[in-house]
Design a protein that fits this description.
four-stranded antiparallel beta sheet, 333 residues, 33% strand, globular, Structural Genomics Hypothetical 15.5 Kd Protein In mrcA-pckA Intergenic Region, Chain A, ten-stranded mixed beta sheet, Pseudouridine synthase, disordered N terminus
């Protein structure tokens, strides 16, 4: 999908390419025998060059019909199914580019890698269109992919507001689709550093659970039992340093569930320092969780790349206060 950027008095307005997807146009897709048995969101994502997230939202908004009936996200398509998809007219939205300092670790014609500061929201939400990473990258980066719509240009994945560290930004739609597929196939390796409260009683481990919304607080996530509906979440951890009161761990996540590391560390009984939602309030102003390392194949050249996000000052200060050691000059695997 192409996009047109119009910069008027430092304001960015995104316009969809009408030849790619016409507003409110109904598109009909007929399922062939070879595609039988595939989930509808995955099937339409490939057929229409849209992300699965976008397709799921269209299904949720009842803009997808199968043989004249409302579709369900888990439906598996069958031969000769007639699928009707309506792309609704997007709300006109205007987002300011803002000269907010950001740490661009790497940039080429296809992608950029940002070391995000804690306290920064990744993308605007309706009614909150300023001060986000998107506002910043609109100012600092010339081209951005348009697949995720007007309020999420270039955004392939996210970090919580108060989690610092590395984020990949797509600069064109080809790179975006390739990166999204890599995240979906779990072949992008993401390694985090976290300071935990307490002396972890294991040196390494693998956590495999279901994660879903907390029934008592819908704003929180929680580990669910095997019979409850939730999504599988897998985290691998290794202790880098510890003492009687605190533990420094590196965590490699195989899935990317909302608040996954924070929930899993609470599940172990060692919440992340500064995490007032999944632990108790303490002297730190935010959770000491940092997306430290990214390893993946370049989405266009297919060359292996690796990036390190240097630790922010508050994380270094927390390490010092907790009497934990971490040498950034020594590579962690």
């Amino acid at each position: 999908m192409e996009k047109i950027k119009e910069n008027l008095e430092n304001k960015i307005i995104f316009l969809e390419d009408e030849e790619a997807i016409k507003k409110n146009e109904e598109q009909i897709v007929k399922v062939e025998e070879d595609d039988s048995g595939e989930r509808i969101d995955s099937y339409l994502s490939k057929k229409m060059d849209l992300t699965r997230t976008r397709i799921k939202q269209l299904i949720k908004d009842e803009n997808v019909l199968v043989n004249g009936k409302k579709a369900k996200p888990a439906y598996k398509v069958e031969r000769d199914d007639e699928i009707s998809v309506i792309i609704p007219e997007l709300e006109d939205i205007e987002i300011n580019s803002e000269n907010i300092p950001i740490n661009i670790v790497y940039e080429d014609s296809d992608l950029a890698v940002i070391n995000k500061s804690a306290g920064m929201v990744v993308h605007p939400a309706h009614g909150h269109h300023s001060g986000t990473l998107v506002n910043a990258i609109l100012y600092h980066i010339k081209d951005l992919s348009g697949i995720n719509g007007e309020i999420r240009p270039g955004i392939v994945h996210r970090l919580d507001k108060d989690t610092s560290g590395l984020l990949i930004i797509a600069k064109n739609d080809k790179a975006h689709l390739s990166l999204a597929k890599m995240f979906q196939d779990k072949i992008i390796k993401k390694t985090y550093l976290a300071i935990l409260k307490g002396k972890l009683n294991k040196n390494s481990g693998r956590i495999v659970t279901k994660i879903g919304r907390d029934k008592n607080d819908r704003k929180k996530m929680t580990v669910l039992d095997s019979l409850e509906n939730g999504k599988i979440a897998i985290s691998n951890f290794e202790v880098l340093d510890k003492n009687e009161k605190f533990t420094l761990v590196k965590v490699h996540i195989e899935t990317g569930r909302t608040h996954q590391i924070r929930v899993h560390m609470k599940y172990l009984g060692y919440p992340i320092l500064g995490d007032s939602i999944y632990g108790r309030s303490d002297s730190e102003k935010r959770q000491m969780l940092h997306a430290y390392k990214l390893e993946f194949l370049h989405p266009i050249t297919n060359v292996p790349v690796e990036f390190i996000g240097k630790l922010p000052k508050d994380f270094k200060n927390a390490l010092k206060k907790c009497n934990l050691k971490f040498d950034e000059n020594i590579e962690i695997i």
